[in-house]
Design goal:
mainly alpha; homotetramer; Helix Hairpins; 2 domains; Four Helix Bundle (Hemerythrin (Met), subunit A)
Chain lengths: 287, 287, 287, 287
Amino acid sequence: MKRFKTFVFQVLDEEDDAGHPLNKPVGLGIMALIALSVIAVIFESDQYLSDTFHRWFYAFEVFAVTIFTLEYLGRAWTADLKFKDLSRWQAIRRFVFSPLALIDLLAIAPFYLELALMAYGAQKILDTRFLRVLRLMRLLRLFKLNRYNQSLRLIVKVVRDEREKMVVTLFMVGILLVLSSALMFTAEHDVQPDKFPNIYTSLWWSIATITTVGYGDVYPITPGGKILAGMIALLGIGLVALPTGILASSFVNYLKDPGSQKEQEEKKEEEKPPLDFCPYCGKKLPH
Amino acid sequence: MKRFKTFVFQVLDEEDDAGHPLNKPVGLGIMALIALSVIAVIFESDQYLSDTFHRWFYAFEVFAVTIFTLEYLGRAWTADLKFKDLSRWQAIRRFVFSPLALIDLLAIAPFYLELALMAYGAQKILDTRFLRVLRLMRLLRLFKLNRYNQSLRLIVKVVRDEREKMVVTLFMVGILLVLSSALMFTAEHDVQPDKFPNIYTSLWWSIATITTVGYGDVYPITPGGKILAGMIALLGIGLVALPTGILASSFVNYLKDPGSQKEQEEKKEEEKPPLDFCPYCGKKLPH
Amino acid sequence: MKRFKTFVFQVLDEEDDAGHPLNKPVGLGIMALIALSVIAVIFESDQYLSDTFHRWFYAFEVFAVTIFTLEYLGRAWTADLKFKDLSRWQAIRRFVFSPLALIDLLAIAPFYLELALMAYGAQKILDTRFLRVLRLMRLLRLFKLNRYNQSLRLIVKVVRDEREKMVVTLFMVGILLVLSSALMFTAEHDVQPDKFPNIYTSLWWSIATITTVGYGDVYPITPGGKILAGMIALLGIGLVALPTGILASSFVNYLKDPGSQKEQEEKKEEEKPPLDFCPYCGKKLPH
Amino acid sequence: MKRFKTFVFQVLDEEDDAGHPLNKPVGLGIMALIALSVIAVIFESDQYLSDTFHRWFYAFEVFAVTIFTLEYLGRAWTADLKFKDLSRWQAIRRFVFSPLALIDLLAIAPFYLELALMAYGAQKILDTRFLRVLRLMRLLRLFKLNRYNQSLRLIVKVVRDEREKMVVTLFMVGILLVLSSALMFTAEHDVQPDKFPNIYTSLWWSIATITTVGYGDVYPITPGGKILAGMIALLGIGLVALPTGILASSFVNYLKDPGSQKEQEEKKEEEKPPLDFCPYCGKKLPH
């Protein structure tokens, strides 16, 4: 039993790169299943395909959920091999509440929830939009891929380091959005009451303009509104430049850091200060 | 009385982080009131909500203005505790004319102005667009949040350092806008006289194109106009890249500065000067 | 006479900052005249304003051209004071063919050309679009402002340093434009022959997409066309990121250079190598 | 014969800059022929021009393919002069499978394929869209220009160095696209079933929004859909900022490298190692 447990751990644990020969194939297999499962959700959203291939979609879903459930249970079971310094239950608890495990749970929970609701005769609820949302939650499986990609974690790390500045930028964008909506409401409400009925509806125009998407469903038609819109669009360019500048500087910094750390370590080795006194004759040595 | 004054100061002064236990809650409370007050303005802009909940909006506004007025008076009263080396009146004067206090004043002034106008029977003026603008001025309360955010001040500082380059970029964008409007006017006026009636109306097309918003309400239809528009759009991309590059370099520089200063200080310590005296004959050595 | 010439030179020469008390006012006056003159051209493009205020526009134009002509002649006359090591005619020649002087000439030439054409009875030509273009050429006066702005020259310098990379980026954008036009032509021609009649007309769609302007007058409607358009739009984002990255790195580099040059100069002073032999006892000195 | 082979090699080899006087003209000639050939394809796509000038287009195509074929054969023949340490056939093999030679082959293959298909009486196939695609493949000749531009190779190199991060960014964009399509499908399907019929069709909206192109053919109209769209557009701005930041940091790094290497070499020279022997007693010193 213990050997089987070790086998399961070595096969499933994605950080065990050099280990078991089955480790990599199983990882790739799960990634492929995630991808296929997401593609299935995408195509099942089409009414025609959903009706025609209903059985196939359902069978594949049962298969995918079975595998993901086994994976989840296997990881939970071998959690004490991963966190060796914790007791059995502490290890499982730590695993269950880790972000990646929560994502794993979210990836299978909708299926069981649907099953449970059907078992309790809640068929009526399932015919509504609620079912659709439940089915789309399967797309969260995409985040399971996080586990297998190191570069992704790297970028996430860089972005997270600049989190605070990003939030402040978002906050400034928020202020600009509110003020520009209020200004455009003042300028355009009388002429286009259907497009700018109030400030919060005008936000739709503001966000389409500041992100430079510009669908063209709402735009100012009065001279004053156009002048305001022009200035807001130019300001928006500046605000969009902010996150780019912040991220760029963070990447520059990140690229420099490892080098400088290495340099510092090399320096430390060199810093072994040269002798001050000759160990043989005892005289002070010049440097 | 003096103890109460100190209490008010410690509670209100946002730089007194480690001080009074009420300092932080009061700060958060004022921030929440600002947010609620802005949300109220946004929803009051809706004719239906404004009519239905008129009393509630008014009551909340009176409450918010009361708090903001007390805050303003409290800060003014305790100004001599903040600027300790100034006399009482000098401290109040310095507070009143500080940017943050002016914003605080702007946040409450519209309410009192409206009150004053109503008292003098100027009801007629208040029924017009003037009232709407006055009410929207309450949105300036958003800038009161400045006081509570250090990261915001940081970004503002970086942007301000690059102010001059930004202005020059804006100036270049301005020239590009005018020239492209003139060119498009020449190319399209004869075919679309309603869209490009003159150069200053054509500016609307230019700004929608150069900021890449592209609503689609105005666009060239002649081959010549399209070729010009394509070149202008490409040039616009370059001009939009300028502020991004400038901000990015500024952030990089800002991140590097502390490090480089430290390095220079370390270097100075290593700059162990060459020998001053010959270790053999003991005479002073020239350099 | 010579004193008057020196006076004209000191008043007009924009590099003579600390000199004559009239130097700055005259510079500001010319800048204001340029701005007013450009604004006049912009408003004269409006048929109504042009008809109503015809006399005023003409009078102002005569005034502006008179001033600009006097300025040009003054600069030419005092060219030998600017280029002191050249003979009189060499100095004038060098001035006349300098870029800034050519811009100055372009700013006044259209007026005299129009006058000359009218004198020779070519009234007929002047009623056509040719006249409009001639009038718009007055907008080139904007570039006269170059003379008075140092920061602008700085940015122009940075952009010029990255010229080669910019051209290559433009070249890559060009290839992407041609290929995407050809692809969209293949995908959409059969369904929308009026929107994608041939490759060069499809370029209009390509440029609106890659610059992310997206007017919405032309867009793919077939599934294949939409997939292609999606990939092209994503690639376009990458290509737009290139000039931004290049400019950002150039600004970073520029900000670092002055510092590093200074450092190098300081190093040179330090590099005065310490003595190798004691000048008194002749023994080799340790370092 | 051998002298003729050397002559061909010196004339064709683009890395032989300082060599044969005909080298540069021939290179420029081939580049001009590529450009003309691409322009011909672009204009031939116009039905009218294609019908009217059919003979001219065909004649020019035969001429261009002849030159490109001779160039290809010449390069293959002289491959053993380029790769001097390889045998004749090894050199040819290495040339044929080099990326640039494959592009050269792709540039002429469509013509011969069309010829072969016509010879075998497959005229029927040639009347279809297949012919059009075959003809457009001639546009791949644009990539032949790679050979003649060093700066292009530089930028390609920088982009390639950041390949992995770019792929991860693209992957994140992909996840965002899928999730936002699913969300918009949920929010808008009931109201606009023709615009958001299923998730994969909703991708068209997602990509137009995240790249900020915003044609305006599809956009949300429900409040929920607009709120989602706003948040997605803002997130899209962030994701677009990522490649810019990555490229900018890479260019910064690239610009810095040469300098820092030089610095390191200078440092090495300064790293005059501490004394090896005591200058007083002459014994070897330990470090």
